[in-house]
Specification:
α4 runs antiparallel to α6 and α7 crosses α8. By secondary structure, this protein is of the alpha+beta class. The protein is elongated and about 90 Å long. It has two domains: about 90 residues, Beta Barrel (OB fold (Dihydrolipoamide Acetyltransferase, E2P)), CATH 2.40.50.140; about 300 residues, 2-Layer Sandwich (BirA Bifunctional Protein, domain 2).
Length: about 425
Amino acid sequence: MKTLYVKDLKEKLGSDIEFRGFVDKIRSLQYVIFIILRDSTGKVQVTIERNDENKEIIDSIEDLTAESTVTVYGKLLDSPSVKLNGMEIIPTKIIITSKSANELPYDYKSRDNSLRETRLDYRFLDLRRDENNLLFECQTFIEAKMREYWINNGFKEIHTPKISAKAAESGAETFKLDYFGHEAALSQSPQFYKQMTMSSGFDKVFEIGPVFRAENSHTSYHASEILMIDSEISWIDSVSEVMDSEEEWIRYFMSALKEKYGERIKEVFHVEVSDTKEKFPRINFYDAKKIIQDEFHYVGEQEEDMDRHEEELISKYVKQKYKSDFVFITNYPYSARSFYVMKDENGVTQTYDLIFKGIEITSGAQREHRPDILIKQIKEKGINPDDLKFYTDFFQYGCPPHGGYGVGLARIMMRIFEIDNIREATLIYRGPTRLNP
């Protein structure tokens, strides 16, 4: 039998139905018992009058507890007096399919009265909250729209290895493992393999997959296992084309999200989904630094990069001046970027970060595709080119000018829903002190 969801019940008014769900609440009164059932789409009331006719049903639920699961057989009635969706199920039979313990480890419905670590310990309960259900429903929709945009625009989806040779990554921040007697590491990024596909003539690619960072970081926006979204495109003349590509892609999935889920997100999260109709502002790195100093009298902790507070302040400035939640910061100093980024004739990097509501969600760049210059830059960064021969070989036999970007999915979710911690925006979080559940 096809599962019947709350969202579909209006079509079944007046019909005999079979409904399955969690027991959200039980109210046992002198003359009637109310059971509120929920599924992933909503809630519905079951009404049981205390009379001889219902004795068998009442006996069957004598030990029923909240959070148990049940199957209810009965008639669905249109009942305008019922506050919950104006309908109720009058049961003829109730089967308890699983029984919850009487006492939960904590009250998962009261998020603000629960420690985050406790909620993460019992994440399977925490995810039962309505806002989490909506969060991951929207995440599914967002990923689908991301893919839809890319597929509609001729991109190929790739799946790169997540086990890499040790030499392929910076050793200090990798999770090392034994690979049939050889030292290997979990991949930090699909970067090298994205570029390999450019040398293969794939032109436009994307990937959504995990990456692993062995950073002993306990901030609210870092994780050890990250779902990364990567894209790379060929035959570009400048980094501006990479920014154009990303901006168009973001506009596609954000406008679709706003149209379909905007009202529900506003109702549940009290957040307005960002308007992406206008072009995202683009500000040079050094200009951004000066704006922050002049407008907010703040000097960042790093000369060659932007700290978190600077990202918050430049976002505040852009929101006030341009009414945008997004801003591209361009042309970062080479010292703060990897060896594979392109520099112009003046040594200016063809790079950018995209900041969304005060947090960097993207790093992007035009890549250096000329092997002689690439090897020179590898040496400048103090790396032995022999350790990266497998990578530099990609460029020895012809490779088009190309560039791309990487985006952390959890950070996008954090900013869309204005969630203050990446742990809350990740299905199951992995960090330096968390390996369970």
